[in-house]
Please model this.
Amino acid sequence: MKIWTNSDTFRIFVAFLLIGAITFSLHLVRVPGSSAPDFVCTSESSQSANIEITSGESGSSIAQSLFAAGVVKSAEAYFRVAVGDARSATVAPGNHRIDLGICASEALVQLLDSSRISGLINITEGAWLSEILPQFYAAGMSRADVASAMQTLVKPAGFTSLEGLLFPAQYSFQKGTLAKVALQTMIVRSLSEMQKAGFATNQSKFTQQQLLIIASLVQAEGNTKDFTKISQVIRNRLTKGMPLQFDSTVHYVKKSRGSVFLSTESTLVNSPYNTYKHYGLPPGPINNPGSDAMYAATHPEAGDWLFFITVAPFDTRFTNNLDQFNTWKVEYEQNLKAGKFRRTP
Model:
């Protein structure tokens, strides 16, 4: 007797079943939301969850965290939104307060909202310690805790100043985090970046703290494209026994920002940081430099320049000739009077 399951009719029947199943599966994939359930975007929520995002965390991992906390209806819904929106790559690390039961696109919007990051401290390149500390208070750390941390924190060997050791980045700390822990986190990051820049392996005569001082001067004195040249000017002036005469060191002493003009009277201010009155490097960093400035401190561009001046915004010129410098200085003064250095709103 012929077995029916081996017949041509059975094979055709099975083939049709397979085609039907595949077609139905493809239909499910094509229909929006069929395989990625999502809450409606008009949903309002009175509850929220704390979603911790780590540095470099993948979109799929974030999607799982959102789903597990009840923020989105499915991990796939957020992942699809993240893949289709380039802004998802800019979600900052930290502890984000996100509403529950919202659609995936709204979840991304809330993740991009820095005001929803708890304990946020954002250090910009070139920021002074005096500008950073108020952010600790805003992040919920008490003045007493911060003051205690400043006094008891053990600085890395070879460094005498906390200024310069707080690496520019965006940090987020859980409620209740001690200021000492927060400061230590920033210092560890700074030491790591110095290591990458070659501070420990640098063959120059400078110590690691002196290289950090140079990096802070470089950060304050020019644009990124000029960093390596400024680094060389510092070396050239020190080698020749010339004072650095950097306006930025006086601005640091006077805590004045926003002006490119420095009066003659200001150059006489009594401070070891005043490089108009004192030869050599200042006793410590004058700001907290970023990775580009750190790299420039250990990788100066070869050149015999002794002078540089920013004649106009983003137009910094270098020379070893004093007469040329003075000619450019006249041009700078004309541009200053013409308002070319005025900040636009």
User: Anything to note?
Assistant: The chain has three domains: 48-117, 120-197, 208-337. The chain is about 45% helix and 10% strand. The first helix runs from residue 8 to 30.
